[in-house]
Structure formats: C-alpha cells, structure tokens
Amino acid sequence: MTRATRFGVATIVVGIVVLGLKYLAYRLTGSIALYSDALESIVNVATAVITVVALSVSAMPADTNHPYGHNKAEYLSAVLESTLIVFAALTILREAYLGFLNPRPLDTPALGMAISLGATLINGVWGTLLMRYGRRWHSPALVADGRHLWTDVVSSIGVVAGVALVALTGWTRLDSVIAGLVALHILWSGWQLMRDSVGGLMDEALPREIVDGVRQIIRDHGTGALQAHTLRSRRSGPRVFIEFNLVVPGTMSVGAAHAICDRLEAAIHGYIEGSSIVIHIEPEQQAVASPEVRIS
Predict the structure, then answer these.
(1) β-strand 293-294 against 227-236: which pairing, if any?
(2) Which residue range or ranges hold the Cation efflux protein transmembrane domain (predicted)?
(3) Are residues 97 and 169 in the same domain?
C-alpha cells in the first residue's frame, strides 16, 4: 500500500467519525441546516472510498495495455468527486426549500453547534494535510479530497452561523436560508474541481513557468545542437511527460547526438522529478525559422 493510499484509508475513517458527529448534532437540534451538513458528510465518505480505489489503481505499474501507467485514474476519481459534490449541493438546496416552507424551532442549539464545530475542526485539520501532501506527491486525488473537505469546512461554519442566528433571533426560516446559501457555495466549488480535473484528463500543458524552465535547460545543456522546437508537455498524476525535436548538424555522428540527449535528459530529470522525456533528433535541414529554443 502506497503512502497516498494510506492517507486515503485514513480519510475514510475521519469521514465516518465526522459524519457521526454531524448527524448527532442534527438529532439534538432538528436544524435543517445541520441535517444538510450531515448529508454532505455522506458524500465525503463516498468520495474517500473512491479516492482509495483510484489511488490503488494509479499505483499499478505500466503494462502492455497501459504503457504510460494508470495515473489518470486519479483524475477520473476527481471528476466523480466533483459530480458527487454537485449532487450534494442540489440535495441541500431541496432540503433548504422544504425547510423554508415548513420551519420548526430548534432544540438545544448550543450543544448541537459545539458538536458540529468539533467535527468541522477535524475536517479542517485533515483537509489541510491532504492538500499539503497531495501537492507534494503530485496526487490529484488527494488534493481533490482535501479541497472537498475544506469546502465542507466553509459550509459547516456557515451552517453553525445560521443556527446561532436562528437561536438568537427566533427566525426559524433563517436556518433554511443559510443552508441554501451554503449549498450554492458548494455548487461553485464542485464546478471548479470538475474543471481542473477535466484539464488533467485533456492533457493540459505544464504551467508556463515550468515549460520556460525546460527551455532554459535546453539552452544551457544543449551545446552542440542548433535548436529545439515542437516542445510538448503534460502531467499524468505524479508523472510528467516532455517531448521535443532537437536539430543537430547534419554531419554530427549518432553517438555525439546521443550524448547531447543524455545530457539534456539528466538536466531535465534534475529539474522535474519523475519526468519521462522523449527527444527526436533531426538534421539541420529540418530546422525551423522560428524555433522555441535557439541553441547556437
């Protein structure tokens, strides 16, 4: 089991604990906002399970049918998570609407808010850890799960604020209004997550600053070659793929051209850990008028 997968399993346990606490808070108060918050926690547990499955598949080595590995399983899980987030938001909107039509007074709001805030604190701490280590390990699934938990943190704070205002003002419909506003925030967060995940599935290029760094490495370590063009890049989970055409003098030997490629690959590997590099050698007759990198 990889370290990322272990984090995913721990997230399931955390999600179950938080779900139990939030459901208890709802049972104590009868608040529609706290009930909606508990509904979202069910999605948290479901997405944590999806993440573990995706991380397990992603960790599988490359094979004949998947020569580039299985890393995109993480992007698929992130898309599915965002879909569940949107579904949870729509469910909360429905509950908020029904609660607005049929408001009811709250029971023991102080105790319910305290329990909900305790669950929110757990989510906040764990969500921060997931995003920190997910970025460090280039795991889209862990980052997506961490963002999801922080979305839950924001919505939970809004829910508790709504319950507090209801308790102070006696306006029971405010409970449902706050729940509806929180649901809209969750809906927006789900859309952003889906957009980022689809970008990974569509092989978006690496950020401009990283690509510029690769170009500078080609300039610094490509001595002997003439130019480089058609530079392409993409990320698949923790792996980065880079390829480009390298133009060399037509009289250069295969051995000399290969030595330049080895030098460039070593430098790029040092710049981007876990990168997979493909360099296509071309004679100077294939030089382009406006290359991405001019070496000499």
Answers:
(1) antiparallel
(2) 11-202
(3) yes
Nearest to 239 by CA among 138, 142, 134, 141: 138
CATH number at residue 235: 3.30.70.1350
pLDDT tens digits for 163-215?
A: 898 888 888 888 888 888 878 877 887 777 677 667 666 777 888 999 999 99
Return d(Cα 223, Cα 197) in angstroms, integer: 38
8 and 72 belong to one structural domain? yes
Asked if residues 89 and 184 have their Cβ atoms less than 8 Å apart, the reply is yes
Strand bridging mode 239-248 / 275-283: parallel
Q: Are residues 85 and 128 in the same domain?
A: yes
0.70 cut: is pTM over it?
Answer: no
Q: Of 162, 185, 201, which one is at a domain's C-terminal end?
A: 201
**Edge-to-edge order in the sheet of strand 293-294:** 275-283, 239-248, 227-236, 293-294
Residues 156 and 254 in one domain: no
